[in-house]
Amino acid sequence: MKRLSFFTLLFAAVFATFAIAPAFLPKPFEAYSLMKVADVLDVFTPLVLIPLYWVLYQVEDRCVPGLKENMFFLLFVAFWVEGHGMHLAANSIGHYLTSMTGSDVFKLAFFYDEVLSHYLWHTGVAGLSALIIVRQWRNPFFEERSFVGVTALAGVLYGISYFLITIEGATIWLGVPFAVLAALAVAIWGRKDLAQRPLMLFFLIAYLTATVLFAGWGIYWGGLPEFSQVGIID
Hints:
With 234 residues, this protein is mostly helical. The protein has one domain. The chain is built from 8 helices and no strands. The chain has helices spanning 2-20, 37-43, 45-58, 67-94, 104-138, 148-168, 172-189, 198-221. Helix 1 runs antiparallel to helix 3 (45-58), helix 1 runs parallel beside helix 6 (148-168) and helix 6 (148-168) packs across helix 8. The longest helix is centred in the middle third of the chain and has 35 residues, at 104-138. It is globular and about 60 Å long.
């Protein structure tokens, strides 16, 4: 279980890297200049993160998931991968459509890039975390206690990343209510022996962090605008 605490930190760090780094890698990819370095990095996002989700979902070897749980896992992975892949392609192509603003092809690419893909992708993000929370609630550890400090650090890091992708992805109607409800659910149903349920503790801290950031951002701006809308990023 102590190794699981450190694994949550690894997961949060990798999630943050793939969520944030592409915004700072706009240079053309030398081997194929139509792509950007960010696009190349993003190709690897599901290839790295989905296996990490699988490890968290397993909880430990003795807690073998059943058919129903596996079906839900595959469903949310499908949402995650389809949304991410749609976003990657539409966003990359959209850079070359700025001269066609207002055209049907521009509108369609924008819809795939900024609306449908984000909601599919973030449904997968929310669904997988909810499934992992439920799995951990049903399968607590009893032999030893987790490293609470490590788990808390991981939770804060993931919460910041979740806040960032929700705001810039403009999925606030999905992301904000889910963060609040997930934090409340874990606080109510898992408040006892959270040290024996490190994944629930991880997501509790994560979604509390995100909720506080949503609240602060909303108060400061009088709403929840994207970072690009207020000039923080291009």
